[in-house]
Amino acid sequence: MAERRGTVFLLLGMLAWIVAGFAGALLAWVVWAVGAILLRRVFGFADLPEPGQLVLLLIATSGFQGTLLLAALWRGRRAGGGDRREGMGLRPIRHRVTIALLCAAMVGWLMVFLLLADAWPALRAFAKSVTPEMLSGLGGGGPGIQVLKVVLVMFLAPVSEEFFFRGWLWEGLRRRGNGIVTIVILTAAPWLLLHGIDSPGRILFLIPAAVIFSFARYRGGSVLASLAVHMTNNGTAVLLQALGEWLGKDG
Questions:
Q1: What's the pLDDT at 138?
Q2: Distance between CA 107 and CA 85 in Å, rounded?
Q3: Which helix (H) or strand (E) holds 141?
Q4: CA distances from residue 24 to 27, 34, 144, 176, 217 in whole angstroms, order as listed
């Protein structure tokens, strides 16, 4: 009974930090907007262009992901009794060959999916409809926007999400005596729901990724294992998107 109550409080804490993440997104947006106003009206940068919706989205998303990362680092340290690595599952990766194969499988799956989407217009249209705006048109915007996109998608998002869900939360559930199936469900479900807030259909595409990330975390015995697979997935998606746009322009 004590373990069950502990799990409930842990999940409530996870939800509270997600709400704090949205507050962090709003704060980042406000700081950016106020800063832009000050630059124009106080410091004389009247020609500074108005930030578009994509810029504001990237800033808000960075604020959200940054909040989750700070929460994972703070809670992980407390859970580990001052040892952040222990509280977040930052251990050496076991079964490294398996993890490398999972990374290769993610690359292969993305390649196969692109071929299927190219062959089936309906699948391509559906995939486009659920693709986040920050991944649509990676070549759009100036160099600063492109760099922000790449940093967010390839680095900040995977690190913050893995450290939060399959790091601190995973370790907390494990210490409360939960079985591996329960741990996988309780860490994957909120991750999926977060990615489906603006487009529920996106969850269908991400279920295989959630399963593979969770298996990597379990098999590798470390959050670094799922992080490696997650970063491989996101990095490959960004590179393929950029390659597709470059080939399209070249053609």
A1: 47
A2: 29
A3: none
A4: 5, 15, 22, 29, 27
Encoded tokens for 208: 């295989």
At residue 16, the pLDDT reads 97
Any long-range contacts for 8-12 (C-beta under 8 Å, 24+ apart)?
10/169, 10/172, 10/173, 10/176, 11/186
Instruction: Find out whether 73 and 84 touch, Cβ atoms under 8 Å.
Output: yes
Highest mean pLDDT among 5-9, 51-55, 150-154, 188-192: 188-192
Query: Which helix (DSSP H) or strand (DSSP E) does residue 142 occupy?
Result: none
- Biggest distance spanned by C-alpha atoms of the chain: 64
CB atoms within 10 A of CB 34: 10
The pLDDT of 181-201, averaged and rounded, is 93
Residue length, the chain?
251
Instruction: Show the tokens assigned to 228.
Output: 């490696």
Burial 137-156 (b: 16+ CB within 10 A, else e): ebeebeeebeebbbebbbeb
Instruction: Let me know: does 225 contact 100? Beta carbons within 8 Å.
Output: no
